[in-house]
Fold this sequence. Notes:
Distance between the termini: 35 Å
Shape: globular
Number of domains: 1
Mean pLDDT: 95
Number of helices: 7
Largest sheet: 2 strands, antiparallel
Low-confidence stretches: none
Strand content: under 5%
CATH architecture: Up-down Bundle
CATH topology: Four Helix Bundle (Hemerythrin (Met), subunit A)
Radius of gyration: 18 Å
Amino acid sequence: MTDFDLATAVPVLARTPHVMSAFLADLPDEWIFCNDGPDTWSPFDILGHLIHGERIDWIPRARMILEHGTSAAFEPFDRFAQFRESLGKSLAQLLGEFKQLREANLRELQALGLTASEMGRRGVHPEFGEVTMGELLATWVVHDLSHLAQVAEVMSRQYRRAVGPWRAYLPILGAW
């Protein structure tokens, strides 16, 4: 599969909140707040980042493409907003919020009734310049998958030393 297909993308997008919940719910804080050191993200931070994207990225930008085309650029995305927006919230709150926002966004995506020809419609990204609707929506899917992998990676690296010589067979742990 190389071309973007909305019908096959939506099932992946619909599963991400469930995967995050299955992965993280009821784990000890040592797993939820682990990271790789200063200026790295924990699973909690990654979840907050996904929530921020649900609020201001994917559907708002799709609407902008449909309403304004290339006459107005997207608002820049604050890749670190989760640090202030998640303050004081529990993991359970974030998981619930993510699920609700994603469900609402998928309903809105369906309501847009996008056709294959609309996947070529263009908008303006503040950094990349012109992008298409298809590129935006494909990026949403890959963004989800990338952050799911990131959660697995940061959690795996907590046992980097504990696995001993098996590390040679665990590429997720990276180089010594």
